[in-house]
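Please predict the structure of the following assembly.
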Amino acid sequence: MDLFVSKYINKIDKKGRVSLPSSFRNVLPKANRNEIILYKSIKTPSIEGCGIGRLEEIAKRINNLDFFSEDYDDFSTSIFSEIITTNIDKEGRFLIPEELKLYAGIKTEAAFFGQGHYFQIWEPNKGLKNTEDSRRRLLKEKKSLRMMLTQQK
Amino acid sequence: MDLFVSKYINKIDKKGRVSLPSSFRNVLPKANRNEIILYKSIKTPSIEGCGIGRLEEIAKRINNLDFFSEDYDDFSTSIFSEIITTNIDKEGRFLIPEELKLYAGIKTEAAFFGQGHYFQIWEPNKGLKNTEDSRRRLLKEKKSLRMMLTQQK
DNA sequence: TGGGATTATATGGGCGTCAATGGGTATATC
DNA sequence: GATATACCCATTGACGCCCATATAATCCCA
């Protein structure tokens, strides 16, 4: 499985360490299994994360923008300076930077939600509520959801 | 990781020394890990820096501008003639030239912002405000910051 | 197939190393 | 000699590495 799926709630210890769920670790490429990137989610009070391979793709994309445009600086600043790389120790744990914990309201526990090619980290209660809300919103759009799920090809 | 990412705020001591963040030092090629170049940012009151290897890349960027335009001379002059090389000591610290400190309004603390292939040094408050402004511009103009971050391939 | 043995995961804690910072002193530049 | 800069050493706190334990999952064999 090469996608981040399922959800897990792990504890943050006194040193601030938290285990990246084992199944998430296995999604990371063997070459860079000890480093991930984290950044503030744009739409929600949560942290998003993924392997560093993605960072190179992002860099490439930004490089294609006009270097002397204002957009270039805006993207470059909003992305590169806001992305945080963090190391995963031998036991599969990492540190969530204080600023990101504040942003997500995380204190003693972190809820990991697989999102396919990336994952989100939430304060557990907020995360669960967000899941319910998402589902509720989807069901309201019953028709389109059914189409999406059952449509062939 | 071969990109400048994240942000750090370091102190400038009485002698004017400031630590280049460890993760930034690691981006510099092992061959020239004790030397960086600094220059005034064209668009913002900040200092930009990178390894000396990037000089060629900067030259290329400028060359892509219309040679006969006013911009060409302006960029060429304001960047190349203003580039300053500075050495990094054994502890990873360097001196920010007085002229550049003045330009950026830096006094006792320097904020380092990763920008991918280069980095910026700001007076901390100005730098943080700039980050907010950048993000606000992107979101308001619906430029797809989210796409940039999550898009596949 | 049941139950003990082995392995993996999440978690806790000790300790050495490194990064950031401060300061003394030698060397150099003028 | 005065100022600036590089090298050396010291301190502090954070982080990485190592080891240990508990619980859960898996395996293995009679």
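Residues 10-11, 13-15, 17, 19, 21-22, 91-93 of chain A lie near DNA strand C (CB under 10 Å from a C1'). Chain A has one domain: 7-123.
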